[in-house]
Amino acid sequence: MKISEIFEDEPKPWGFRGDPYLWRELKERLDNVDMPDTPEQLKSIIEKEYEVATGHPINHREHFTVERFMQGGMSSGGIRPEFWHNCEIPLLVKRHAAP
């Protein structure tokens, strides 16, 4: 199983307008990466890819903008780290254990 498979069902609602673009980019980045053995390893991989994709570590708490995700609108390209830290990464890690 590849990590990208746990990104199939997209969450709703999103944090900011850039979050769906980040979700899809992470899915693409992890398309050829095998699912690790433990949830902790999965969390570490996702957090590292998040930092590479955004230029910010997951513990960065203030929202920020990623220019390549800007598609128009008030929060265009906006990433809400709290949303990823509290909702999305835990959701993905939970999917690690799902059959």
Description:
With 99 residues, the chain is mostly helical. It has one domain (3-7, 15-97). The protein has three helices and two strands; from the N terminus they run ααββα. The protein has helices at 19-29, 39-54, 81-97, and strands at residues 64-65, 78-79. Strands 1-2 form a two-stranded antiparallel sheet.
Give a brief outline of the structure.
By secondary structure, the protein is mainly alpha-helical. Helices cover 44% and strands 4% of the residues.
Sheet-strand content, in percent, reads under 5%
- Give the CA-CA distance, first to last residue: 11 Å
Mean pLDDT: 91
How much helical structure, as a percent, in the residues? 40-55%
Number of strands: 2
C-alpha-based Rg, rounded: 13 Å
Oligomer: single chain
Q: Could you give the order of the helices and strands? A: HHEEH
Low-confidence stretches: none
Report on the biggest sheet: 2 strands, antiparallel
Across the major sheet, the strand order is 1-2
Q: How many discrete structural domains?
A: 1
Cα shape = globular
The chain-level structural class is mainly alpha
Number of helices: 3
SSE topology sketch:
Layout (H helix, E strand, L loop, with lengths): L18 H11 L9 H16 L9 E2 L12 E2 L1 H17 L2
Helix pairs in contact: 1-2, 2-3
Keywords:
3 helices; 44% helix; globular
